[in-house]
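Worked example 3 (structure in, sequence out).
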């Protein structure tokens, strides 16, 4: 499962749903017009370099962006972007340290959010679309219970 290096013809990206208890850690993306979804809250991660597996890229990106060595990432799913030639490998990583111990080196801010709080912010658009699959694949009791409670409220995304 995902042991081989990605194909060089297509952009390969590794992104993480980092979670602690019933909350998700997100990054406020820079306000640079040239990037995808500037000024939106999104996932940590980045491009898979030639010769890396997606899991290796995920660990490297987290170490670079948060100055934290995460536990082994759990592969959750693959997202094929319909609008561009890009494959995104999605991983789940439990946050095993306090947020105050993280050092943000990319983006404007980081923060833990409940699912309800996510409806009040500008999210990278694919996040709400894949959240049900992600929560199921992470299989954390706390996250699953929070997701069920959130779903029962019938809230809509911003």
């Amino acid at each position: 499962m995902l042991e081989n290096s990605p194909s060089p013809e297509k952009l390969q990206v590794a992104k993480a749903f980092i979670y602690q208890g019933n909350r998700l850690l997100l990054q406020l993306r820079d306000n640079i017009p040239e990037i995808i979804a500037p000024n939106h809250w999104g996932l940590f991660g980045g491009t898979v370099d030639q010769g890396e597996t997606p899991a290796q890229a995920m660990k490297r990106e987290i170490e670079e962006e948060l100055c934290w060595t995460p536990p082994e990432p759990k592969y959750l799913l693959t997202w094929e972007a319909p609008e561009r030639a890009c494959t995104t490998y999605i991983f789940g990583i439990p946050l095993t340290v306090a947020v105050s111990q993280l050092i943000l080196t990319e983006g404007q801010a980081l923060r833990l959010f409940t699912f309800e709080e996510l409806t009040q912010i500008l999210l990278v658009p694919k996040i709400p679309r894949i959240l049900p699959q992600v929560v199921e694949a992470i299989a954390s009791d706390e996250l699953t219970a929070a997701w069920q409670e959130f779903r029962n409220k019938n809230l809509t995304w911003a």
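Notes: The helical segments are 54-66, 115-118, 126-138, 141-152. Confidence is low (pLDDT under 50) at residues 3-7.
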